[in-house]
Design a protein that fits this description.
It contains three helices and two strands, in the order βααβα. α1 packs across α2. It starts with 10 loop residues before the first strand and ends with a helix. It is mostly helical.
């Protein structure tokens, strides 16, 4: 799947509408192969983004877990550290 799509479930605070839409946009871009669709495909592309976002919202609201919510700042710091280790120059 697309590496730019981030996990949105079980975070505190919960995923925002902007994050859900951004993930939906990335998903539709990946499926369609378009970064920016032509005018002829723009309406279909935009509708697909909105449809995927709507389904993502339903999914996020339907999921349950007994795990403690993850903290966005801590997870971001862990990702930065993994990146530093991965791209560290010797």
């Amino acid at each position: 799947m697309c590496r730019n799509i981030k996990t949105l479930f079980n975070f505190e605070p919960p995923a925002t509408e902007e994050e859900i839409r951004a993930a939906s946009l990335q998903f539709v871009r990946k499926l369609s192969g378009f970064n920016k669709p032509s005018r002829a495909n723009e309406a279909a592309f935009d509708k697909a983004v909105e449809d995927v976002a709507a389904v993502a919202r339903v999914l996020m609201q339907s999921l349950t877990t007994t795990a403690e919510p993850r903290d966005r700042d801590i997870e971001a710091e862990k990702a930065k550290e993994r990146s530093r280790q991965r791209f560290q120059r010797d």
